[in-house]
Amino acid sequence: MKEIWLYVYFPNLQLDALLQQDPKSNIHAYVILDEQTAQVCQLNHTAYQAGIRLGMGLGTAVMLKGDLQVIPYQAKITKNRLHAIAQSLYLVTSDICFFNDKGLLLRVHNMLNLYGNLNAYWRIVQQQLLAQQVLFHYATGHSPLAARLLAITAWDQITDNPKIISQALQQTSLQHTDISTKAIEKCQRVGIHNIQDLLKIPLSDIAKRFAIEVATYIGKLSTQIPHPVSFFHPKKSFERVIELLYDIENIQILQAPLKQLLHSLELFLKERDLLTQTLVFTLSQRDEKSLELNIHSQQGEYLAKSWAVLIALKLENVTLSAPVFAVHLKVANSYIRNPDKSDLFAGKQGRLSRLQLISLLQAKLGEQAISTPTLNNDYRPERSIQGTKLFAQPPESFTLYALRPSFLLSPPQHLREKVTIAYGPERIETGWWDSQAITRDYFIAHNQLGQWYWVFKTAKGDWFLHGVFS
Prior knowledge:
- Helix content is 30%, strand content 27%.
- By secondary structure, it is α+β, with helices and mostly antiparallel strands.
- Strands 8, 9, 10, 11 and 12 form a five-stranded antiparallel beta sheet that branches.
- The relative contact order is 0.07.
């Protein structure tokens, strides 16, 4: 099978990632500035209409558009966005390569048996790309360099016809290739201006007359020299960063970019049929230490709307010490989702499960504020039940005593009404080891209204009401 490669070129990846946060931002002119060259490397449609072009200096661009919004180029943003797109494409195609920092190379020929033909394959890939809401150009070729060269010239065609691809390549200027400027100038001095001119010359003669890089490039372009590539393997965990379009000082305004991250997380988990119980948000603050937020769901969630409720409650107790310029979300642990099970005859239930209610309370009040009663191995009734952290290690097994009320008074109250003894006494004499010793005789009694009490008599003869039976 003849090799077919698809290259997808993203010229505005950083700008697209930033402008996704605010759909109305396209009314303003934005450019990404390469600070090393002081030239425009990315721009939106509004800036283009104002006359600004790629490679233009900052001074000229500002003269054309006085209210121009300038953002410095950050390779990290582009890299993170490119990884996110690759993760999405991996669901529909297997062999993906990070060919450079602005594009993805896809090996197509080994996927055609699955999709039937090239057009069917491209329809599926195009759906994934359109969902990313980024500008892209594309092209196919019989070598990785051929596909890339046509894509960066915005050829935007999908074909496996060698003649059509060859004709398009031959007309391509050397300025679009990866050949160095010095080598291109040397070629131009002898009348070579496009790929067609170089392809007429034997590869051995190119190596003699021009730099070795020119021969290597043409050899890989025409498949005369093999072009090895390294393929991408997706991460099993979710990690995403959003660089904000502007610094945010109000914690509530942060919910918009947080929801954008949660939407990406929902797609990641849903496509893999996974759940997670913990989200870790890192808020990068300007000139201050980053703020880390841990959001927990005891039941495990994947839906963005469920996580958004927990985050909103968590943010109510958060105060920013400086403006936030970036938000990082990491999900380290996830697990396979089990289908929900319900009893057909259970009747109408509440909307919240027990675990969901616990998660809401923890997000609102803090994890340390929520505890659950557990039995403690102590004979003293006041210490036989203690509050422990939810889902902590269960205590060791010990003997449970019957005839104990579920409701205890704290502290015990003097018995001020007449009761009738029904059971007892039960002597409890303990606590000598921690200087809080007790000596009591407990009885089960009831009053004239039929209420059942748990009462005790001290060594001094005083009577106390300690508990009420339900």
